[in-house]
Amino acid sequence: MNPTRLAGRRRALVLLGGAPLLLAGCGFKLRGQRPLPFESIYLGMSPYSELAAAIRREIRANGGTRIVDKPEDAQVRLEVQADIKDKLILALNTQGRVREYQLRQRFIFRLVSKSGQEITPSNEILLRRDLAFDDTQLLAKQQEETLLYRDMQNDLVQQLMRRLAATKMPEAPPAEASPAPASKP
Fold it and tell me: What is the pTM of this model?
């Protein structure tokens, strides 16, 4: 084997081996699971929806937080104020047929404590995807639309989990001080 070629391979191997060390040295690490700052949560949405199942799955995978069936048993309640899927026409071709759609999913929620105190005010997650449309490939475009909505739902769940993990729980109210005993004169 040619010595210059061997030296080039060694350099490439050293660079490949050194890159992870440089990344670790600068503090880079892959995003892992972040624990949620509460022990139990009630999901205020239909338990049979695909979105609720995905959120439930993600919370269980995250560990540490229980999902309860009754709002009074939960430390916090996730109140879903809106979950809307839209399909808008973006462009038409010269015959007046749809050429491009925009798929949207809008999710509005808030987080409320057991006592009814608002922990996180109304928050909106808005996702958009563009879908090029061709009516000669109707079945393929319907499948693509389904896949895009599924991708949007996965993205929504990840964004929701990041926002829940970043929630600052209110401090417990200070216990009422008992009145000092009256001194006898």
Answer: 0.74
Structure token pair of residue 34: 């972040």
Pairing verdict, β 118-132 and 98-113: antiparallel
Residue 42: HSE in the Cβ half-sphere, 13 Å Cα cutoff: 15
- Residues linked to residue 135 through DSSP beta bridges, in sequence order: none
pLDDT tens track for 70-85:
999 999 999 999 999 9
Compute the half-sphere exposure of residue 171: CA atoms within 13 Å on the CB side of its CA: 3
- Residue 88 is encoded by which pair of tokens? 């808008």
Chain CA centroid to CA 103, Å: 18
Distance, CA of 36 to CA of 185 (rounded, Å): 55
Question: For residues 129 and 148, is the Cβ–Cβ distance under 8 A?
Answer: yes
Task: Give the sheet arrangement for strand 66-67, strand by strand.
Answer: 66-67, 40-44, 76-92, 98-113, 118-132
Task: Retrieve residue 171's tokens.
Answer: 């401090």
Amino acid of residue 90: L
When the pLDDT of each residue in the chain is averaged and rounded to a whole number, the result is 86
Per-residue model confidence (pLDDT) at position 172: 61
First-residue to last-residue Cα distance in the chain: 105
pLDDT tens digits for range 22-72: 666 676 666 566 789 999 999 999 989 999 999 999 999 988 899 999 999
User: Chain centroid to CA 15: how far?
Assistant: 36
In angstroms, the CA 131 to CA 128 distance is 10
